[in-house]
Amino acid sequence: MKDSTGGKIFNVVNYSLLTVLTLTFIVPFLILLSTSLVSEQELIRRGSFILVPEKLDFTSYATLLSQGSALYQSYGITIMRTTAGTALNLIFTAMMAYGLSRKTLPGRKIIVTLVFISMLFGGGLVPTYLLMKFLHLTNTFWVMIFPSLISAWYLLIMRSFFSQIPESLEESATLDGASPLRVLVSIIIPVSMPMLATIGLFYGVTHWNAWFDATIYITSSDLMPLQVFLRRIVLTMTNQDLDSSILLNMKEQATPQALRGAMIMITTIPIMCVYPFLQKHFIKGVLVGSVKG
User: Contact, 99 vs 112, CB < 8 A?
Assistant: First the structure.
């Protein structure tokens, strides 16, 4: 069946808009990548807006990845935070969401209401900081994980998804002597992988990109995550400041623009590489909890 004239026009307009939208995402990324590979001489001669470098220069990457750079310490903290934080987020969110999805839970509606209220109102920065200090979490690794252990939004999405799972699956496992925890681990989790992969991706990206909580609660340079290190690079305007902030010991120095571009590439590409492995589950689970079955 051939498309009508209106359908053809719609396809042309649709593809054109999608192409323009795609370019708005890709072109800035390519410009940053090119900037990180431009030498100081070419930057002075051609200006800061360079899409295709005449000659590739890896001085900025060699500078950031040189021996003694604080980048490795920050990378390790961020990887630990993303890994441990995402795992704990999924475990605690799934456990609470599964409990709230059971109609037999006493006070279920009250708890859900309190969770929803927490999405609308927060305690504020100063009370939250005082609470973290009272709990002796400031200047520790766990202060970047425990305050955001359960997201109210993702909790409600998980609860909605668990509510759609047929009760017959749980009843059959219960008749075989399975405990609620065994039902969650052996029955609910395996059939919820698309949803868990999707929310896990969101949790992981949040941890990878987070910097504000570390800036507020942490003063030790040994616990600074990658994004705080990136922020220092981006806000620095001179090579002299860069030398003192990341302890460079190289004779050949890169331009501040190239260092900032290289740092953004180093911090962005790893988390981008995670998506292809979760794409299959992500497509299935991106609208999870929105359709009642």
Answer: no
Please report where in the chains the tokens 């973290």 appear, as a residue.
Answer: 132
pLDDT in tens, 188-216: 888 888 888 889 988 999 999 998 999 99
Structural domains in the chain (count): 2
For residue 170, give the nearest of 152, 186, 151, 147 by alpha carbon: 186
The CATH number assigned to the domain holding 72 equals 1.10.3720.10
Tokens at residue 157, please? Answer: 């999405």
Indicate the SS3 state at residue 273: coil
Where does residue 260 fall: left (phi above 0), alpha (psi -120 to 50 degrees), or beta otherwise? alpha
* Residue 86: other Cβ atoms inside 10 A: 21
CA gap 11, 177 in Å, rounded = 56
Domain range spanning residue 38?
Answer: 1-57
